[in-house]
Amino acid sequence: RTNWKCFLSLVSGSRSSKTFKPKKNIPEGSHQYELLKHAEATLGSGNLRQAVMLPEGEDLNEWIAVNTVDFFNQINMLYGTITEFCTEASCLVMSAGPRYEYHWADGTNIKKPIKCSAPKYIDYLMTWVQDQLDDETLFPSKIGVPFPKNFMSVAKTILKRLFRVYAHIYHQHFDSVMRLQEEAHLNTSFKHFIFFVQEFNLIDRRELAPLQELIEKLGSKDR
C-alpha cells in the first residue's frame, strides 16, 4: 500500500478544478481487489439489491471497507465535475435544501462545529475521509491484519458524511448535473449507496431525511 501513499502525496500538490481528491486505489492482486471486482461484476447484472449483499463466506468488515473506498471514489468524481458551480459565492453555507445546514467538526482538529461554505466543508470532509482510508490501523490492506474494534463506528461516520455530499449535489446543483447530462450516473451511484447502507443499517434514518422522498422513489421502483 505504500505505492498509494506516494501517489497521494504526488497528486495532492496539483489539484485542478476537475479533480477533487486523488482516486483511492485498492492494490491489484489483493483480496480486497478481488472483492471490488466481484462487486463490479454483480453491479453489471443490474440487480442493485443483490449486488450489495455480503458475498458468501466473506468478512463483513472487509466488504464494508471495500465498498466505502469505492463510494469515496464515486462521490469524489461526481463532485469533481461540478466544483466550478459550487463556490464560496454560490454556496455560502453547506446545505441540503432550506431545512438542512451542516456545520463541520472532526473531533480532533476542529472540536466545536464551525459554519463554513459548501466547498470548504466538502474539502474538510473529503480530506478527513481520505485520512481515515489511509490509516492502516483502521483500514488494513494486508490479508490477516484484523480490523479494529471501532471499525464499524468509523465506517458509519464516513458514510454518514459522504451522504451529505450527495444531498448537497441533489439540492443545490442538480440543474448543473442535468446540463452536464450526468443525472443517470448520479442516480445510479446514489441508488447503489442507499441500497448498501440500508442492507447493513449503516446510516440513521434521521440523517437521510434531506433525500427521503428520492430514497422512497428509488426503493419503490425496485420492488
From TrEMBL:
Q: What is this protein called?
A: MOB1A kinase
- Output one GO MF annotation: kinase activity
Which lineage do the record's taxonomy fields give for this organism?
Answer: Eukaryota, Metazoa, Chordata, Craniata, Vertebrata
Give binding positions for Zn(2+).
C86, C91, H168, H173
- PANTHER family in the cross-refs: MPS ONE BINDER KINASE ACTIVATOR-LIKE MOB (PTHR22599)
**Record SUPFAM superfamilies:** Mob1/phocein (SSF101152)
The entry's keywords: Kinase, Metal-binding, Transferase, Zinc
InterPro entries the record matches = MOB_kinase_act_fam, MOB_kinase_act_sf
Coiled-coil region list: none
Q: Which Pfam families match?
A: Mob1_phocein (PF03637)
